[in-house]
Design goal:
Elements: H1 12-22, E1 31-36, E2 43-47, E3 56-59, E4 69-73, H2 78-88, E5 93-95, E6 116-118, H3 119-144, E7 154-159, E8 165-173, E9 181-186, E10 195-199, E11 215-220, E12 226-233, E13 239-244, E14 250-254
Antiparallel strand pairs: 1-2, 1-4, 1-14, 2-3, 3-13, 4-7, 5-6, 7-10, 8-9, 9-13, 10-11, 11-14, 12-13
Length: 259
């Protein structure tokens, strides 16, 4: 007996159209490239080379794994940061340690003597909190995997080739344009790695879906400044990427490395 579709079922054609429509957008977990056509030369945002592989540049001509980033959601690192602080401050006791704890640690459970908490006890508590935070971050990534990214959403970008994270630190000057801040690839995620995708295409606004081919601006969440392609080049001929009040417009595309 032939199958009769009910009103809730999708036809193969409808499913194919929906799948094709889905490919038009940038999603969490996608491998993407950032194209720039400033200075009269089209190029792609990439890692540096050799001893400068943690630098971020716009390279002209290359289309290899140096240019590919994976999209990740924003995740938290409060407990991990606290754990590093406790391990760094290796003293017999930490005065007012409760003031430095992440919110995930129950300070009332810690023994105290004259307002002090021993390093061993504090370290154990924060280690537990850090493990819980890691599990929570993994859960967030799993929940958002494959979800369409929207303008105004905070994301992180992991470099495909070396596994490091796009980051910016306003305390450090850029190598070439020293009036701008340093953009680099960092071995760990963190608040310095949080960026917003903002629209540069007319008719797009925050909350809209980010589409392949869109022109976008990358805003550093912590500082509010923009990812910027310098007009200055390094010894390899690549353009420096830094953080500035001026912006660079990038065009988004899926990477061939992503299928």
């Amino acid at each position: 007996m032939p199958h009769v579709m009910n009103a809730l079922e999708s036809s193969p054609l409808e499913e194919a159209i929906a799948e094709d429509e889905d490919e038009k957008y940038i999603k969490t977990g996608d491998l993407i490239v950032f194209g720039s056509e400033e200075e009269g030369e089209p190029g792609l945002m990439a890692s540096g080379t050799g001893f400068h592989e943690d630098d971020v540049v716009v390279t002209v001509g290359d289309r290899d794994q140096r240019c590919v980033f994976e999209v990740f959601p924003m995740t938290r690192y409060t407990a991990r940061k606290a754990l590093k602080r406790v391990r760094r401050d290796k003293t017999s006791a930490i005065p007012s340690a409760r003031d430095t704890l992440p919110t995930t640690v129950d300070a009332s459970s810690l023994p105290a003597s004259s307002g002090e908490v021993t390093v061993g006890v504090l370290n154990a508590e924060v280690e537990e909190s850090s493990r819980a935070e890691t599990v929570q971050n993994e859960a967030i990534h799993s929940q958002l995997e494959g979800k369409v990214v929207k303008y105004g959403q905070v994301i992180q970008l992991q470099h495909l080739h070396n596994g490091k994270w796009l980051a910016a630190r306003t305390k450090d000057c850029a190598d070439l344009e020293t009036d701008c801040a340093k953009v680099f690839l960092h071995k760990e995620g963190g608040s310095k790695c949080w960026f917003k995708l903002l629209p540069r295409t007319s008719g797009k606004s925050e909350g809209d879906k980010v589409a392949v081919g869109d022109q976008v601006v990358l805003q550093h969440k912590k500082s509010g400044n923009m990812i910027h392609r310098s007009n200055m080049t390094n010894e390899a001929g690549d353009y420096e990427v830094n953080l500035a009040t001026s912006l660079t417009v990038f065009t988004l595309a899926h990477s061939a490395a992503g299928g």
